[in-house]
Amino acid sequence: MCRLSTRSRNHVTVSGRAGGPVVMLAHGFGCDQHMWRLVVPLLERDFTVVLFDHVGAGHSDPSAWSPERHSTLDGYTEDVLEICRELALGPVTFVGHSVSAMMGVLAAAREPQAFTGLVLLAPSPCFVDDPATGYRGGFSAEDIDELLESLDANYLGWSGAMAPVIMGNPERPELGEELTNSFCRADPDIARVFARVTFLSDNREDLAEVGVPTLVAQCSADAIAPPEVGAFVRTRIPGSRLVTLKATGHCPQLAAPEETAAAITDFVRAGR
Amino acid sequence: MSASGDSESVDQPRPQHPGDDHATFSALLEDSAEDLYEHAPCGYLSTLLDGTIAKINTTLLDWLGYDHGDLVGRRTFSDLLTVGGRLYHETHFGPLLRMQGEVSGIALELKALDGTRLPVLVTSTVKTGGDGRPLLIRTTVFDARDRRAYETELLRARKEAELEREELKRLNATLQQTLLPPTLVNVPGLDVAAHYHVASTDMVGGDFYDLFPLSAGTWGLFLGDVCGKGAAAAAVTSLARYTLRAAAVYDPDPAAVLGNLNTVLHHEYNGHDPRFCTVVFGLLTPEGDRGGFRITLASGGHPPALLLRADGSADHVHTPGGQLMGVLSDAHIATATVHLAAGDTLLLHTDGLTEAHPDGTRGGGRYGDEALLDFVRALAPTTASDTVAAIRDLLDTFGTGVDDDTAVLAINVPRPTSEEQP
Fold first, then answer.
1. Dihedral, CA atoms, A42, A45, A46, A52, nearest 10 degrees?
2. A256 contact residues in B (CB cutoff 8 A)
3. Would you give the distance in Å from CA B325 to the centre of its chain?
4. So what's the pLDDT on residue B12?
5. Beta-sheet pairing, B117-128 with A22-26
6. Do A249 and B396 touch (CB under 8 A)?
7. Digit-coded pLDDT (tens) for A225-235
8. pLDDT tens digits for A59-113?
9. Does domain B18-143 have CATH number 3.30.450.20?
10. Which of A32, A172, B58, B96 has its CA 20 to 30 A from that of A9?
11. pLDDT digits 0-9 by tens, B2-16
12. Among A54, A59, A97, A250, which one carries the catalytic annotation?
C-alpha cells in the first residue's frame, strides 16, 4: 500500500505571503481548522500560513486514524513533524491551541531545528488535578468521564450514513460545509479517544525540554485553562514569556481574533 | 407575533360582535409579551458574549431554584453546567456558535441550586447589531428529562449491540478456525503453503481446505467452497471436511472419495433446504526413483487447479464435467493425474479470487480465470510460499472488491539445493 501524503491525510492548506515567515496553526480538541478562520486573514498579509486538521477532525482522512498512533499525543506530534518535513518550508512558528500547544512542546523538544518558536494559546500541560504535587489543572478524572457522556449525548445525531458525506469527501469539502455543526463533527469513536488523549495526558515534565523561543498566551477568564496553569507553563519553559489576553473563554482566536493575531504577529516579528 | 387572533384557533364560542375579537382573545391568551417571556413553557436566557447572564426568565429560574439576583450579572451560562458539560460547551458549543451564529439542539445538563441535574436541549443564536457585530447570545432551554432517559436507554442498547457484534465476530473467527487445519502438516519432499482470506467478519465463510497423511506414504488434500455463508454453511463445511477425511481412509481413490461426499451431502440436504459445495480432492503419491510426486485430482464442480512448471510455463489442470457435490444422487466426477517434478507448483483456489472485482467496486468486472492464469504465468517458476504470498498481495490490491471468502493452497516440489546438484 502506498504511503499517504500528509497533505491529504491532514487536509493541509497553505496560504498567505509566499516567502514570508511560516506560521503553522494547530486546532485543539473539538473542532477543526475553521477555528482559525478569523485570524487567518490577519496573518496572511505578512506570513505564509499553514492550516491542517488533526486526523479524525474536519476533512482529514479518517482511514489514516490508527488506534495505536492516535491514542497518545506522541502520534499527533509525529503527524505535525511529518507535515513540516513534507512541506519543507523551513523552520515554522507553531501556534498550538489548547491540546495542540502540548503537541508543539513535544515536537519542539524532539526536533528543535524545525521550529523558530512556539505560541502556546490557552495551553494546559495537564487538565487533571495532582494533589500529590499541589498542581491544579482544574479537573478530576470523573469530570472527564462526564465530558465523554456529553459527547455521547450529542453524537446521537451521528449516523453511519452521514459519515461518508462528512468525512469521505476531502476533494469536495463543500459537501461537509453545508451540514450544520460540521466544523465540530467527528466520528464519535475517534472523538472519544481524542477526548481522553486531550484531557488525560500529563506533559508537565516535557515543558523543560523546550529550547526554542516560546510565548504563552492565556485568556483572562478560561474555564478550561485557568490562569495558574498558564503561569505554571511559563515558569517551566525556560526563557518563555507570558501574555494574558483580554479575551475570555477558551478560544481567543474566535472571541478576539485581532488581539490573538497581534500577539502572534508581534512574537514572530520579535524573533526575526 | 400578531395579537389580533385572526389566525388563532381557540376552542371557545366565537363572540357575537366581530369587533370584540381582539379584547376577548387577549383576555383569554393573557399574552402580554412580558408574561409570555417569563412564563413560557421553555427557559429563556440572554447572555453577553463572554457568557455573563444578562436576562433569564421565571420558568428557568424555577427549574433551577435560583432567584433573579443570584444569576443576572453574577454568573455565566457555563457556571450552570456540569463540569463535563462545561468542557463540551467550551470545546464545541461555544466555537460553533461563534462560527455559525447559531447552534441548535445541543444536549447539556444544568445544575440546579439543590445540586440536582436537569437534562436540557439548548438552542442559541447570536444577536447582532446594525453593523453586524455580535451583541449578545439568546438561548432557549427545553426540559429533556424524558427524552434523555429514552436516549440513555438507546445508548445502552447500542453499546450492548456493539458488544454482541464483537462477540459474534469472535465466535465466527473461532468457528472459521475449526474448519481449517491449525497448521499444515509437514510432507517430506514437499513445500506447502495456504492462505484464507476472510471477506467479512460478520459471517463465517464456507471455504475449507486440509492436507493429511494416508496409508503407505500417500497424502490426501482437498480444498472446497460451500454455497452460502453463515451458520448453515458452516455446518455443511464441517460435514464435508469430516466426510472427506473419513472417506479417504476408507478408499483413497479421489473419484471414490468425492462420490461418498456427494452421497452424504445429497442424503443430508435433499429436502427443501438443498446444500451443496464444490471441491477438489487430491491424492499425493511419492514417485520413488523418479522423484517428485504423482497427484490425482478429482473435481466436483470446482475451478481448475493451476500447475506452475519448473520451466516457467503454467496452465490449468482441467477436470471438465465435474458436477456440484450434493445436488444429484449420482454426480459426475472428473479426474486428472499430473506428475509434479522438482520446481513444479500446484495451486488450488476457490472462486472468491477469480470472482473478485479488481477495481474494488461491485459494479466493475470480475478478475476471471484467464487473468489469474496470466498472473501465475508471470510467477512461474516459483515456490509454494511465494505463490501464496503473491496471491495475498493480489487480494490486498483488490481491497473491498473481494466480496467472498477466498482459500488458496499451494504445494511445490523443491528443487534440489545447489550442493546436491552435480
1. 60
2. none
3. 30
4. 52
5. unpaired
6. no
7. 999 999 999 99
8. 888 888 999 999 999 999 999 999 999 999 999 999 999 999 999 999 999 999 9
9. yes
10. B96
11. 444 444 444 555 555
12. A250
Region B279-290: mean pLDDT is 92
Chain B closest-CA separation from residue A245 CA (Å): 14
Smallest CA–CA distance, residue A4 to chain B, in Å, is 15
Distance CA A25, CA A263 (A): 14
Q: What integer pLDDT is reported at residue B272 of this predicted model? A: 66
Asked if A180 and B82 come within 8 Å (Cβ–Cβ), the reply is no
3-state SS string over B367-402? CCHHHHHHHHHHHCCCCHHHHHHHHHHHHHHHHHHC
Of A60, A98, A182, A201, the active-site residue reads A98
37-56 in B: which are within 8 Å (CB) of A? 49-51
Quote ipTM for the complex. 0.83
CA of residue B161 relative to chain centroid, distance: 14
Answer yes or no: is pLDDT of A3 > 60. Answer: no
CATH architecture classification, B180-412: 4-Layer Sandwich (3.60)
Confidence band, pLDDT 50/70/90 cuts, at residue A164:
very low
Domain pair B18-143 / B180-412, same fold? no
Give the span between the Cα atoms of B79 and A248, in whole angstroms. Answer: 14
* Overall average pLDDT of the A174-190 stretch: 62
Provide the edge-to-edge strand list for the sheet that holds B334-340. Answer: B207-213, B219-226, B277-286, B293-300, B334-340
Count of all residues that appear for chain A in the document: 272
Structure confidence by residue, pLDDT tens digits, B190-247? 999 999 988 877 777 789 999 999 988 899 999 999 988 788 888 889 999 999 999 9
Active site residue A100: no
Query: Which are the contacts of B208, defined by CB distance < 8 A and separation ≥ 6?
Result: B179, B180, B222, B223, B224, B225, B226, B237, B240, B241, B407
How many Å lie between the alpha carbon of B46 and the closest alpha carbon of chain A? 17
Residue of B392, B399, B391, B393 whose CA lies nearest to B364: B399
We find that the CATH architecture of domain A6-270 is: 3-Layer(aba) Sandwich (3.40)
Q: What is the pLDDT at residue B422?
A: 44
Closest C-alpha among A96, A68, A74, A106 to residue A204: A106
Beta carbons of A103 and A190 less than 8 angstroms apart: no
**Domain residue limits, chain A:** 6-270
Using H for helix, E for strand and C for coil, what is the string for B94-132? HHHHHHHCEEEEEEEEEECCCCCEEEEEEEEEEEECCCC
Q: How far apart are CA B81 and CA B93, in angstroms?
A: 12
Rounded-to-integer distance, Cα B391 and Cα B407, Å: 10
Could you tell me the residue ranges of all domains in chain B? 18-143, 180-412
Q: Do A153 and B151 touch (CB under 8 A)?
A: yes
Give which of B100, B96, B120 is closest to B45, Cα–Cα. B120
Q: Is the peptide bond before B358 cis (omega within 30 degrees of 0)?
A: no
Model's pTM, two decimal places? 0.66
CB-based contact, B155 to chain A, within 8 Å: yes
Given an 8 Å threshold on Cβ–Cβ distance, is A152 in contact with B155? yes
SS3 (DSSP) at B210: strand
User: Do residue B87 and residue A251 have CB atoms under 8 angstroms apart?
Assistant: no
Phi, psi of B117 (to 5 degrees): -110, 135
Residues 6+ apart with CB under 8 A from A63: none
User: Any catalytic annotation for residue A98?
Assistant: yes
